[in-house]
Structure formats: C-alpha cells, structure tokens
Design goal:
Radius of gyration: 23 Å
Structural class: alpha/beta
Strand order of the largest sheet: 1-12-11-8-9-10
Length: 495
C-alpha cells in the first residue's frame, strides 16, 4: 500500500481511517532485559497470546491455551478450523445497495505528497523488518482470516473492548490490514511511520482508547499472526513483532498524552445550516462548542448521532473563519451510513462530534510558487479552502484551479469559485466536464501551463489522483511538489 513522502501537519485515519497501524521504532528497542526503556508513559510488558512449545511452558502458556480454547468453543468451531468470523451489529445500513467509496472530501488518515513505491526486496532492510515482512508475505493471501481471527480473539478474551469499536466490523477489518501492510512495506521509513503513529495516537482519543488497552491488542495480534504464518513464525519472528509493537504502542500513547494537554478528544458541533446543492450533495455549516484550530486544506473525522462510533473523514470547505464556523461538502453514496445521514437526515440544531484536524495538504506561505489545483467532485472542498487561504494572506501568487465533474450539474460549487475569481486577479478557474471519458480532468492541464514552477494539489477520486500525478509529472512538476492524500487509503476509507 502507498504511504506519503511528506509528514502530516497534525492526522490521518481514522476516524474512519484511523485504524490500527504498526511500525518500527525510531531506534531499535533494546532486547528484553536491556537497560533502556522508551521515554514517556511506560507500557506494560506485552505478553504474547501463544509462544512456541520450545520457548514457553508453565502457567502463562496454560492461560494462553485456555484463552484459545475459550475462543474456539465460543464460536463452535473445531480447533483446526481455518477461519473465525466476527459478527457485527444486526442493524442494516440506511439504504440497501453495493458498497461504494466516497471520494473527494471523504479523506484518509495518511496524507501528503506522491506515495513512495513498494519495495522490491528486503535485502537492505533491518533484521526485524526482514522477519516482519516475511510474516506479512505469508499472511497476505489469507488476510481476511487473519483479521477475523484477530478480532475474535480480542472480543472473546477482552469483551470490555468491544464497545470501543463500531457495530459493523467489515471496514474495520480492512483498515487493520491496510495498516499492517503499510508498516511491513515501510518499517524502516522512520519519519513517515513515526508521524503516522503519532497521528493515530491523537486520533484514537475520540474512541476512548486508554494506555492499558494496547497490550491486549498486541497479544491478540501476535496470536492471529502466529496461527496463520506457520511457515515463517518462530521465536525470532515473535520477538521482532513484540519489539516493534511495544514501540508502536509507546509512540501512540505518548502522542495521545501530549495532545491531551492542549485539546479535547473531540468537539461538539451544532449544525447551523444545511444546503442541498444537488439531489445527493449537501453543504453543511457547523458551530463547534469551543475554538477549533485547523489549517486550510486539512480534514477532520466526523460522527453523527444516528451512527455512534462510526467516523468518516471530510475536508474543511473553507479557510478558518473569524466567526469560528466550519463547512463541509458531503456526497451521499449507496449504502453510505454517515454520508446519507449528513445529506438526507441532518438538519439545523443537530449536534455532531468532530475529531482533531489532520492533513498535510496545506500551503507554504513563505514561498511565492504558483499553485496548480485539481479538484474532482467533492474534492473541490479543500481546494476552495486553499484558494481562500491564499486570498486572506494578502500575498498574491498565481493560482490555477481545474474543477472537474462528470456533468455540468455536478459542478455544484462553481459559482462560488467564479466569484472568488472576479475579486482576485491572480486566480484562474477552469471547469472541466468529462466528455464520455474522452476528456478527463488530468488531461486538461496539458493544454495550459507551463507548470514547472508550480506546486500541485490534488483532491478527488483515487483514479483521478493516479492519472493526475502521471499528468503532472509529465508536464514538469517534480514529485516532491505534488500533494494529495494517499490513494490506497482513499480506497479503504469508503463509507
């Protein structure tokens, strides 16, 4: 899976995309019994669920085996059953229909510029990375079974943790796998993964996650991995996972503790206006119950009162305002729990919950580079916020906005952008309507330019971002000057 090459300004996620993540420490942790410990809040020693018979005997092994027996008995499966399914809530989604991905302002936890590419080998990796990547390679074909078994272990052995998770677990399983693959691919990429884990630690506060929850998750993770990675699993592999997870936990715990000193775990926000722009797209404006600091181009996680513990990510559709109000663009999708509630059910007076701000798709006002912005669908929301941000800073710089949609009706915010263009001579807005696949948003930039002195910003469907990155590089914009949310995380963040 892809990961960003720039650090986050604040998140990621999760919120909806704030699923678990695993990474290698800034420096390799000392082996058990060493003299050093990670600084900050001390994490209780991680006790693996299962150890090899050669290395573990006695009461602890008996307890672990008993936990496994409880698990298998509770789901009425034989000990060698290949899979265990975790049932979610019986409550159906608000609308029937196939699962879909909400693009544009529905955003990911991992964000930044062009993702780094998947490593082609592990010869240069650290010893722990080699062992962890071998585990991941073995379990990848049975990823669904691994994640189902992990949650079965967690909820049977630690039922008190079930209330921290959403009623339906399908999307949660996907996020766990994505996070694991991120760490396996980038376990030695410390800057990216440290930032990722700090964002997750801060974001997990809104779920009520506490430091003493982490050892239970680690035990069950190792229990699930050891069950399905039998070829690669041994004492050395288990030790590598224990070291990595212990440090992962500590980074997240420390980030949450530091964040607790300066901000609440969530904000309450009252809906003050709800404007239906198209049959399935709404613009919501909310008033937080206390000051909410954020930067234009960032996003937040949002929870509705109708679907508790289900969070989705949406970009801020304006720069910070003097009245403190926040705006979001939401497109309802088939079977979208949160998006349908926000578009078709929310009304002024309803109270939502907001997670912390997140994202690195922000403007560097210390430079004078031009900005080339591509916004597809509701992805125009953060682009409009960026334009407002440039206007408010009073330092004119060329800004070119390409606003793409499938039909002219879907250009629901074009009038707002055209009004901004009328009052700012440095702004050029170019609407682009898909001509039955013959002219798409990224293609339009080839007819203009040159762009080699511009910083590029992309927000929209994953397919648009992929083709947009290729088009931007082809017209001379280097990859380090292209900012967007992680494509793979956007795919995983479907409502």
């Amino acid at each position: 899976m892809d990961a960003p090459t720039t650090t986050s300004a604040g998140n990621g996620t999760s919120g909806d995309s704030d699923g678990g993540g695993w990474f290698t420490p800034r420096t390799s942790p000392p082996p058990p019994g060493g003299d050093q410990e990670p600084e900050g809040n001390r994490l209780a020693a991680l006790r693996p669920v299962r150890r090899s018979q050669e290395s573990s005997t006695g009461p602890q092994q008996d307890r672990d085996d008993a936990g496994r027996e409880r698990l298998e008995a509770s789901v009425n499966l034989p000990p060698d059953a290949p899979d265990i399914q975790v049932e979610g809530s019986s409550a159906p989604p608000p609308q029937p229909g196939p699962a879909a991905v909400e693009y544009g302002s529905e955003r990911s936890v991992i964000d930044g510029r062009v993702p780094v590419q998947r490593a082609t080998g592990i010869d240069a990796a650290s010893p722990d990375a080699v062992l962890i990547q071998r585990t991941m390679a073995e379990i990848e074909p049975v990823a669904d079974k691994v994640t189902s078994y992990f949650y079965a272990l967690l909820f049977v052995q630690h039922p008190e943790l079930r209330s921290l998770f959403p009623p339906a677990m399908d999307a949660q399983r996907d996020r766990l796998l994505k996070a694991l693959l991120t760490a396996a691919e980038h376990i030695d990429n410390t800057p990216v993964l440290v930032d990722y884990l700090q964002n997750l630690g801060r974001g997990h506060r809104k779920y009520g996650t506490q430091p003493d929850h982490y050892p239970a998750v680690g035990e069950c993770l190792i229990g699930a991995l050891s069950r399905y990675a039998k070829e690669s699993w041994n004492d050395a592999t288990e030790a590598a996972w224990v070291r990595a997870y212990t440090t992962i936990s500590q980074v997240m715990i420390d980030a949450a503790a530091a964040d607790e000193l300066r901000s609440p775990p969530w904000w309450l926000a009252e809906v003050v206006s709800h404007e239906l722009r198209t049959a399935d797209t709404a613009v919501l404006t909310v008033r937080p119950n206390q000051p909410y600091p954020f930067l234009a181009g960032q996003y937040t996680s949002l929870e509705t009162p109708w679907w508790p513990r289900i969070w989705r990510h949406y970009s801020f559709a304006s720069a910070p305002r003097s009245d403190g109000l926040l705006s979001f663009h939401v497109k309802a999708i088939a079977a979208g729990w949160v998006s349908n509630a926000l578009v078709h059910r929310a009304r002024p007076g309803d109270v939502l919950r907001l997670g912390p701000p997140a994202g690195a798709m922000t403007v560097d006002h210390t430079t004078h580079s031009g900005l080339l912005c591509l916004g597809g669908g509701t992805g125009i929301a953060p682009i409009k916020a960026i334009v407002e941000d440039v206007a408010e800073h009073g330092r004119p710089r060329p800004v070119e906005v390409f606003y793409g949609a499938r039909t002219g009706q879907d250009l629901y915010d074009l009038d707002t952008l055209l009004r901004l263009q009328q009052t700012n001579s440095w702004l050029e807005v170019r609407p682009v309507v898909d001509r039955h696949g013959l002219l798409q948003l990224p293609d339009a930039i080839r007819d203009h330019g040159p762009w080699n002195e511009y910083d590029a910003y992309l927000a929209g469907p994953p397919g648009m971002i992929r083709s947009g990155v290729d088009a931007l590089k082809a017209v001379g914009i280097p990859w380090e000057r292209i900012r967007h949310d992680s494509v793979e995380e956007l795919v995983a963040a479907g409502d």
